[in-house]
């Protein structure tokens, strides 16, 4: 068995571990399923155990090994107590000199936790559980903490400050300084910005050429429709699915106009560079589902499945209802949706690059409120008719027509524009 070589466990793998423990699967079997080393799974469980001190119905928590036979009374005397036996109050082990903690054998050896234990509902002793989301949160926190602080020695910090101070005071940017002294500066640009932000140097933000001009961006509060939508739909799951099924991928994204209002849903057929765009009144998951329902109705089941076997998208809240996209109104599977890793837009880089053509016609910040779907189709007709060097000077329209045929292009309302009539400027939509 070829073990996975990357080091860190993902949230999906941790969820699998928790689910398998609940089913009483052995650590060896879990490791085999995840293609991980047995010691990796064992260390993961032991490292992120959560202690629960709970009793059961009618009996309070008591970790003493003698609790079942104990007959000690009046341990808390002279304080008033109305329990006949001390073991009934649930605090006797705090005062008793004969207290001996009972440690379950299940916690001393694999699986090291109470997940899947048939006696956990009746046990009154200390319990330990493995929870995937809590384990992943601890892991992310530890990763973040490990990157905090200064990695340079005191002498290296002083030398770096001497090197960059004069040029920055003279109005040079940090990027310029780093490019000039790239062999002498031991850290990246971002690290220098962080050092200045955290007052490691005497330099302040006010000394930087442009930083003080920018205001902190306000991020709107967003809520996912299905918080567990990424389960079995991660980028790793996508790669495995593609390897097994060998089907083309459609990348999906959103192009925004102003801060609110209408947005575009973009769909890129990666193999031929052909891109579709659909105007939506707002950036919600319902509007995304509506586009796919419309396409399914217009194209028919056979054509839809042929065009959209796999969809790869990012983690935007508008894409957080994958089941509604994947199934038709009868609950039948019509496509598969997968998500890129968080903050990894490069995993769907083709569609990100193709958005450049849209931005030539609809510059960033321009509102889409007066835009119509007919205008969007016209824009995409011009973009798809534009010849590309990467396709041997063929246009995406020509390649798409070769693979899928003219009939589908007519259903999608995309026309071919003559090469000498293509317009990729805002003037295209002015009239």
Q: Summarize this, please?
A:
The chain is α/β, with parallel strands linked by helices. The protein has helices spanning 11-22, 27-34, 38-47, 105-108, 132-146, 154-169, 174-180, 189-197, 235-245, 285-299, 301-307, 322-326, 349-361, 373-384, 396-404, 406-411, and strands at 49-52, 127-130, 249-256, 263-269, 274-280, 310-313, 336-339.
What does this structure look like?
This protein has 16 helices and seven strands. Helix 10 crosses helix 11 (301-307). It is α/β, with parallel strands linked by helices and 431 residues long. Strands 5-4-3-6-7 form a five-stranded mixed beta sheet, with helices on both faces. It has a two-stranded antiparallel sheet with strand order 1-2.
Helix-strand layout with pairing:
Layout: H1 11-22, H2 27-34, H3 38-47, E1 49-52, H4 105-108, E2 127-130, H5 132-146, H6 154-169, H7 174-180, H8 189-197, H9 235-245, E3 249-256, E4 263-269, E5 274-280, H10 285-299, H11 301-307, E6 310-313, H12 322-326, E7 336-339, H13 349-361, H14 373-384, H15 396-404, H16 406-411
Parallel strand pairs: 3-6, 6-7
Antiparallel strand pairs: 1-2, 3-4, 4-5
Helix pairs in contact: 1-5, 2-3, 10-11
